[in-house]
Every structure is written in C-alpha cells, then in structure tokens.
C-alpha cells in the first residue's frame, strides 16, 4: 500500500468512528424529565429566613413564597432540626454538632411537577 491510500483509510475510519460516537451520544434516552419552567402553575419566588445567622439552639423561621394551586411542601436540612416540614413556614434550630453552614431545602410539588430552592443558615457556637 502506498502512503496516500493508507492515509485515506485512516481518514475514513476516523470519520466513521467520530460519526458512531456522535450518533450514540445523541440517541441516548434521558430518564429524568426536564424541570418545569417557572410559571403561575408552579414556581418558587423566594425562601426567606427571619435570621440567616444564629447561635446553637436559637430558632429561625424560614418561609417559602411559591405560586400555583394545590401546593405541597417538603423541607429537608443537611444538619439541624425543623418543625412544620410540610407547611409554608418551618421552624429551624440547630445543636452544637451543627455549627457551621447548614443547607435547608424546600421542595414544592403539585400536578405540574416539582421545584426546589435552598437557603444557607450559619450556626455559631
């Protein structure tokens, strides 16, 4: 084989390989539906805490301002405790082992899907 025909074969094989990769990536199905666009049907406008910096055992109230009908609320935190985890406002407090920045998340759900947002609370000793 001469150099030119060898280069053509390498070029064709390279092009074929790239085409296979592009097609396999673009044809993959995505299991998770895309998040809904914020609208009047379902949206979180803001999460507001009465205090973003607290000392241990001091409480802060966090309220979600959301739009939509038939809204359901679920609150979670990486540290600390909450009261009212299925309501618009949650009472959050943290003990000595929660010192530092804590992430509190609210997920709002209705027939249009789910949206969530987070707020950071700093807990000092």
SSE layout and pairing:
Elements: H1 3-26, E1 42-49, E2 53-55, E3 60-68, E4 72-77, E5 81-83, E6 89-93, E7 100-110, E8 113-124
Parallel strand pairs: 2-8
Antiparallel strand pairs: 1-3, 3-6, 4-7, 5-6, 7-8
Please sum up the structure shown.
19% of the residues lie in helices and 46% in strands. The chain is an alpha+beta fold and 125 residues long. The chain starts with a helix and ends with a strand.
Characterise the protein shown here.
Helix content is 19%, strand content 46%. The chain has 125 residues and is α+β, with helices and mostly antiparallel strands. It starts with a helix and ends with a strand. The longest helix is centred in the first third of the chain and has 24 residues, at 3-26. Strand 7 (100-110) and strand 8 form a beta hairpin. The mean pLDDT is 84.
Major sheet: size, sense and barrel closure? 4 strands, antiparallel
Mean pLDDT: 84
Q: What order do the strands of the largest sheet run in, or round the barrel if closed?
A: 1-3-6-5
Q: How many E strands?
A: 8
Shape: elongated
Helix content: 10-25%
Quote the beta fraction. Answer: over 45%
- Rounded to an integer in angstroms, the radius of gyration calculated over CA atoms is 25 Å
- List unreliable stretches of 5+ residues: none
- Structural class, from helix and strand content? alpha+beta
CATH topology of the domain at 42-124: Immunoglobulin-like
Distance between the termini: 78 Å
Order of helices and strands: HEEEEEEEE
